[in-house]
C-alpha cells in the first residue's frame, strides 16, 4: 500500500494493485477498478513513483525469501536417504 494525502491534508493508504487510472486535473484523480474515485494532493508522477518504489521493495523482498528457501532446502539425496 502507498501513503497519499487527501485534499484536506489527511493521510490515507491506498492499495495500488486496485488502481485503474490516474489523472492530473489539476488535483490528482485516482479511479479504482471498482469505480470509486479518490483525490490526492500528490501529482500523478509522484503517485506513480510511490507505486514503483513500493513494487521494487515488494519484489526485492520476494527475491530474498526465495533465496533463503533455496539455501535451506535439503538436497533430494538427503530426503531419499532418510
Structural account:
The structure is a single chain. The chain has helices at residues 44-72, 76-81, and strands spanning 2-5, 11-14, 19-24, 28-32, 37-40. It is an alpha+beta fold. The chain has one domain (2-73). The strands form two sheets. A three-stranded antiparallel beta sheet has the order 3-4-5, with no helix packed on it. The protein has a two-stranded antiparallel sheet with strand order 1-2. The longest helix is centred in the C-terminal third of the chain and has 29 residues, at 44-72.
Write a brief structural summary:
The chain is of the alpha+beta class. Helices cover 43% and strands 28% of the residues.
Secondary-structure map:
Layout: E1 2-5, E2 11-14, E3 19-24, E4 28-32, E5 37-40, H1 44-72, H2 76-81
Antiparallel strand pairs: 1-2, 3-4, 4-5
How many structural domains? 1
The main pleated sheet reads as:
3 strands, antiparallel
Number of helices: 2
- Mean pLDDT figure: 88
The amount of beta strand, in percent, is 25-35%
Give the uncertain stretches in residue-range form: none
Helix and strand content put the structural class at alpha+beta
Distance between the termini: 44 Å
Feature tags:
two-stranded antiparallel sheet; alpha+beta; elongated; 82 residues; 2 helices
Amino acid at each position: 500500500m502507498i501513503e497519499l494525502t487527501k485534499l484536506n491534508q489527511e493521510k490515507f493508504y491506498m492499495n495500488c494493485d486496485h488502481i485503474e487510472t490516474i489523472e492530473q486535473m489539476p488535483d490528482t484523480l485516482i479511479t479504482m477498478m471498482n469505480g470509486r474515485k479518490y483525490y490526492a494532493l500528490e501529482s500523478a508522477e509522484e503517485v506513480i513513483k510511490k507505486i514503483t518504489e513500493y513494487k521494487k521493495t515488494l519484489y526485492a523482498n520476494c527475491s530474498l525469501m526465495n533465496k533463503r528457501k533455496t539455501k535451506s532446502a535439503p538436497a533430494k539425496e538427503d530426503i531419499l536417504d532418510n
